[in-house]
Specification:
The structure is a single chain. The chain is an alpha+beta fold. It contains 17 helices and 21 strands. Strands 1-2-3-7-4-6-5 form a seven-stranded mixed sheet, with helices on both faces. The chain has a six-stranded mixed sheet with strand order 10-11-9-12-8-13, with helices on both faces. A four-stranded antiparallel sheet has the order 14-15-16-17. Helix 1 packs across helix 3 and helix 6 crosses helix 8. The longest helix has 29 residues. The relative contact order is 0.10.
């Protein structure tokens, strides 16, 4: 039998109680009962190296309902996990009891199976609006994790998953809501005892805002994080109206032009604005989009627009069975410990919003704006380009690409850099969110700021010993060991392309290629002896680039390119004499 505390009902018709230590809110509604069990844990609580663990717990908790006829589901978001069901009181009891029983004793024998199901689920998902902006704003931590695949799955063990469920899916970290005036008989929501976990603090990968980055063609996306408020919610509606009016009705640039307000955590919300366009109209779209923000930021907000969105907001109070309709939002505020307004307070706040309030929100939105634009940048609008390359590179040993000497990895004791004519990316080991390690020697590193460096030993001639600084420097908590790759997935150097790049000519036929390789071996040995003498006098740690043995190989290739025609001529003459 469940443990229930005394219930109290407020003036708005919402009853508050606790069931087995879980804060619970009730309000009656006609028809079937709908219930939701919320936990204050989501993807933003993970690290990139453990990402997927919350979703995995959710799947394991629902496995026993797989063949049920219940209308149920589960969802893992950035800051919460939600189990919900609709049915008869008996259906609701069956579902909620089953979820809690599974959370107490997860079916860990299905661990690998559920991992594979999660990978399949991810492969069929499409990215939503603003997907890329979270990565550029937060990097590879906190709320930026929603932009990444669930990269931690290969490394997660049964003990990891069980411990996550034990510490995060607890009674103190949960809220239950139900569209009923009373609790159904037979509930058993016993969960481990624990503590409430506040929403994670946001990280940042942006040195300054307002900022922009260049994304895919066909759309403009702007996100901004502002304090949660009634004025900000109404501003998002006004912004959507302005975008639709100017970009679709007047300009004819867009089919979709809209804006949205979404709470992120206890105190902050994200305002997202979006507009699409055909490639030939996207420059005009960007200009018109910026003009709308400039107009609102200058305070040119129509009273009629405010009155319109205010009327829509007030209309919610005419919703039948209003108390039950408010339950999910009320429960979420309880979960996040955000101040929940009474109906009278909510109505008063909506009625009190002024044009000047919206003007203040418009300035705040622009000050924190991150804009994804197609094609060219928007420096002219006063936005700063978000970093597309790392600010610096490490000082260590250089390993040139065997295909292209202008591309190189630099490996040091404290980090690794990839340099090329297109730019540079650096990951410091102490700030590495993830290093995927493949049995063939491949490494994939992602820094806290979102920059990535991929190490393919086959492309850079790197030995296991030369990878030792990575394995010693990256924290073990950031390492995920990957399964073996199919040999066809391991990149191999394209020597023909390297020859073409070095000489501007197609590589010679088989006979001369053998001669070239023989001469190349001799050249490499001779150059190598010289390199050893230089190395004996050089401290790799004092040299910013260090010895570059792959550069030696590239030089050999260039040598072959020079002597190749002479060998070809000799071959031609021998054939002519025969």
């Amino acid at each position: 039998m469940e443990s229930v505390t005394k219930a109290t009902t407020d003036a708005d018709g919402i009853t508050t109680t606790t069931v087995d230590g879980i804060r619970t809110v009730l309000a009656p509604a006609a028809g079937l009962v709908t219930a939701g069990l919320l936990f204050r844990v989501g993807r933003a609580d993970e690290t990139l190296a453990t990402s997927g663990i919350t979703h995995l717990v959710e799947h394991l908790a629902l496995h026993r309902h797989g063949l049920s006829d219940l209308h149920y589901n589960g969802a893992t978001a950035a800051a919460y996990t939600h189990f919900h069901v609709t049915g008869t009181p008996a259906d609701v009891v069956e579902y909620l009891n089953g979820v809690c029983a599974a959370l107490r004793d997860l079916p860990l024998q299905r661990l690998e199976t559920e991992k594979e199901i999660l990978r399949t689920e991810a492969a069929g998902k499409s990215h939503g609006i603003g997907h890329a902006t979270t990565l550029w704003r937060y990097g590879s931590r906190s709320y930026g994790l929603t932009s990444y695949p669930e990269a931690g799955l290969p490394e997660l063990t049964a003990d990891d998953v069980q411990e996550w469920a034990r510490t995060r899916f607890t009674a103190e970290n949960a809220v239950l809501w139900m569209t009923s005036d009373r609790l159904p008989e037979g509930l058993d929501l016993t969960l481990p005892s624990g503590e409430w976990h506040p929403a994670p603090a946001p990280t940042s990968a942006l040195p300054a805002t307002p900022a922009y980055f260049c994304g895919e063609d066909g759309a403009v996306v702007l996100t901004s994080v502002v304090p949660r408020s009634t004025a900000a919610r109404l501003f998002a509606e006004v912004l959507g109206k302005e975008l639709f009016r100017d970009l679709r009705q007047k300009g004819g640039y867009s089919y979709t032009a809209t804006a949205d307000y979404s709470p992120r955590d206890t105190d902050s919300a994200t305002i997202t604005a979006y507009a699409d366009a055909l490639p030939r109209k996207q420059d005009a779209l960007v200009g018109a989009f910026v003009d709308v923000l400039a107009k609102l930021r200058a305070g040119r907000i129509e009273q009629a627009d405010l009155d319109s969105v205010r009327a829509s907001a007030l209309a919610q109070f005419d919703t039948p069975e209003l108390a039950s309709a408010r339950l999910p939002g009320h429960a979420m505020n309880l979960l996040l410990r955000h101040r929940d307004l009474t109906l009278a307070e909510a109505r008063a706040e909506i009625e009190a919003v002024t044009v000047e309030d919206l003007h203040g929100v418009a300035r705040a939105v622009w000050a924190d704006a991150l804009m994804q634009v197609p094609g060219r940048g928007v420096d002219w609008a006063g936005l700063t380009a978000a970093p597309a390359v790392s600010a610096d590179i490490v000082s260590g040993r250089r390993h040139s690409s065997v295909e292209d000497g202008s591309v190189a990895l630099i490996i040091a004791k404290d980090g690794i850099s990839l340099v090329s004519p297109q730019g540079q990316a650096t990951v410091r080991y102490a700030e590495c969110s993830l290093m995927q390690v493949y049995p063939d020697g491949g490494r994939h590193l992602i820094g806290d700021d979102g920059f990535t460096v991929t190490v393919e030993p086959t492309l850079h001639g790197i030995t296991a010993a030369q990878l030792a600084p990575l394995d010693a420097g990256v924290p073990s908590s950031s390492v995920v060991r990957m399964p073996p790759r199919d040999p066809s997935r391991i990149p191999q150097p394209d020597l023909a392309a390297a020859y073409l790049r070095a000489t501007g000519k197609q590589p010679p036929s088989t006979g001369i290629t053998v001669s070239l390789w023989l001469f190349g071996v001799l050249s490499f040995l001779m150059t190598g002896l010289t390199g050893l003498l230089v190395l004996a006098e050089t401290d790799a740690e004092l040299s910013p680039q260090g010895p570059d043995w792959n550069g030696v190989g590239v030089n050999c290739l260039l040598t072959l390119a020079v002597i190749g025609p002479f060998l070809g001529l000799l071959r031609h003459r021998r054939q002519g004499k025969g």
